[in-house]
Design brief:
By secondary structure, the chain is an alpha/beta fold. The protein is 40% helix and 18% strand. The chain binds NADP nicotinamide-adenine-dinucleotide phosphate (NAP).
């Protein structure tokens, strides 16, 4: 029986990955900062990659439990923060032959952003990928880094689910008229499937892949489809950019949508498009088109 160690197993990509591995007969150890109930074929290990003990009772002991599991694992998956995972991996003595880690297309998209925090994120992602590949090379492990575009499908994402929540709260969403940049939303289950498929794909060893969704559509059409999936469907209003900017400034002044910054507004006009051809050829990546339904978003209650 093969053994997997999964970081981020409670997240939107991690959960379907745990199911996929267990369905295939793997024994799975998954790390979480919160205590979680064991299930057949799944053992939760309490631990925090940041090195901060999640509770006094879980300090050093918890860390050594997942370090020990890492030594038995046939494959290690990272579906949580890549920087913390890479730092842990580099200092651990994990000798699993296969490592599959999720990064982000933000490494490309946010490069040169007007926002200092976004540029810092890019620097962290770059450093994390570099650390991971170097540490793996030093111990003869094969790493694949998967970079998704905008993830949806679990009702827990911070992008489309957030838009759906705001739309349901106010009965409407306002967009600038030029929000026509192209997007490729990708379903979390397709990403879990990709991670599973590339375990054995030798051609993917030592490589990074962009994982976009199976359909390319404008930001405006993406939002319109989300709204159409909700019941009752909130309305979409499109206003000239200066009006939108004014509305956003008023919202910020009222303490609303503070993390929706200038860089995010500018990106609504930009095409964020990636090619899935390499992943398709190398491990049969086959993402679905964008067909949202209400269950993919948080309930208004
Ligand atoms: N969401 C997107 O649109 C998007 C887009 C591109 C790339 N990605 C990348 O895809 C990966 C997964 O994203 P996601 O949205 O599926 O994640 P998510 O649902 O937010 O879940 C994050 C996971 O990371 C774990 N985690 C967070 N901090 C941790 C820590 N200090 N120690 C141990 N575990 C920790 C959490 O576990 P516990 O809470 O159980 O501890 C949770 O399972 C990430 O690398 C992300 O950057 C996401």
């Amino acid at each position: 029986m093969k053994t997997a160690l999964v970081f981020g197993g409670s997240g939107q990509i991690g959960m379907p990955l745990l199911d996929r591995l267990r369905d295939d007969g793997w024994r799975v150890y998954a790390v979480s900062r919160a205590p979680r109930a064991e299930q057949p074929g799944l053992v939760w290990l309490p631990g925090d990659l940041s090195g901060e003990p999640p509770g006094a009772a879980m300090s050093g002991g918890a860390l050594s439990r997942f370090d020990a599991s890492a030594r038995q694992a046939d494959a290690i998956f990272s579906c949580g923060p890549l920087d913390l995972f890479a730092q842990w991996y580099a200092r651990s003595d994990a000798d699993a032959p296969r490592v599959i880690a999720f990064g982000s297309t933000s490494i490309e998209v946010k490069r040169g952003s007007a926002d200092a925090e976004e540029r810092a994120l890019v620097a962290r992602l770059r450093e994390a990928e570099r650390t991971l590949f170097e540490a793996a090379a030093a111990r003869g492990a094969a790493v694949t880094v998967l970079r998704p575009t905008l993830v949806y499908g679990s009702a827990r994402d911070r992008n489309l689910s957030r838009i759906a929540q705001v739309a349901q709260r106010f009965g409407r969403i306002v967009l600038p008229r030029d929000a026509r940049g192209l997007r490729q939303p990708v379903h979390a289950h397709d990403l879990a499937d990709a991670a599973f498929r590339c375990i054995e794909a030798e051609v993917a060893f030592g490589r990074t892949y962009a994982l976009p969704g199976g359909e390319t559509l404008s930001y405006r059409d993406m939002v319109a489809r989300v709204l159409a999936a909700l019941e009752p469907p909130p309305r979409l209003y499109e206003v000239p950019s200066p009006v939108f900017n004014l509305m956003l400034a008023l919202a910020h002044a009222a303490g609303i949508a503070l993390d929706f910054n200038e860089a995010a507004v500018a990106r609504m006009r930009s095409d964020l498009v990636f090619d899935a051809a390499d992943a398709q050829r190398d491990f049969g990546y086959a993402p679905r088109g964008f067909h949202p339904v209400a269950a993919m978003f948080p309930s208004p209650d």
